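Tutorial, part two.
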Amino acid sequence: MLRFDPAEYALRLAKTKESMQEHGVDVLIVPDPANMNYLTGYDGWSFYVPQAVVVILDEEQPLWIGRYQDANAARATTYLEQRNIYAYPDVYVHADILHPMDYVANVVTERGLATRPIGVNMDAEYLSPRGLAALQNNLPDANFVDTGFLVNWVRAVKSQHELDYMDQAARIIEHVMQVAIDAVAPGVRQCDAVGKIYQAQMSGTEEFGGDYPAIAPLLPSGPGTNTPHLTWTDDPFRSDETTILELAACRHRYHVPMARTVHLGKAPKRLEETSKIVVEGIENALAAAKPGALCEEVELAWQRTIQRHGIVKESRIGYSVGLNYPPDWGEHTMSLRPGNKTEIRPNMCFHLIPGLWLEDWGVEISECFRVTEQGAQPFCNFPRQLVIKT
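Running the prediction step on this input gives:
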């Protein structure tokens, strides 16, 4: 069930160890499911309980440590040898006294690593304060180092095989977005439209089946378009109202998101005009996204566009995207915003989403793109415009 050649996993591990040396750590505890997948291939809906991959600088393979009933998933989806798969018993699950990170710490001790510098992302969504405390309490002689999003940064530049999966996800999202647009009609319940969206996301295309995206369909409608992260209700769509669709397709955990805005009836002049400005800004931002450019320079191209029209936007306009699990398809590394001086490199991938959420209305149109030697290349071929259904 491996999605990549063992040689690619070996290269990922080598790059991770190189970064570990730069951070001064010999052991890296990785609880994030996307990073666990990236380093070992592990794939399972087991991230609702603590689990981790442990990378050891001078050992050939990482360790997988998770719940006992999930150990067979590690055997089925990873390249790891049996001796490197550790399973904690259910007594650790949702317990008042014991914690799975107690077990992780015990494994670290058994492997003779308890006094070596240990790296951990202390801002990880999948490592609770109690989990971090369990590690530190059980490993009092270790020097813990906050290595931040170390593996996420290793993931920033995609391999050709990863890009192939994102290309396949792009074909799926083109279909999904058209299904979604077709489903938005007066009198149709939002939940029924979402049912069609989910069916399209999972069934994919004739060539490529889909997977569950890391974020549920976002579907703010009517007055709700002034905020980006509403999902859906059982209210019907109404004539003369706008709906924002922010969706993604997922192929083997690799995401390509897309956002479009749909209006039922004659569109207000402000919505039509602002949509055209957004599209102009996207085109200018894409033109600026070349190898060697800084993330902030891409955002500046957008800002210069909207400033000419008297529009102000405070939030970032994009972020690195690719492999992930709930609750986010973003990679938590690069952001397209002022002050981000990360240099853009070929095979980095971004979701460019300069949404505008104003006092009582909003508009979203986005593009997911990869960086090539020549510049930005959108993954999708889908009309970049406001959708008006009369």
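The two ends are 47 Å apart (CA to CA). In part three we will examine how such features are distributed along the chain.
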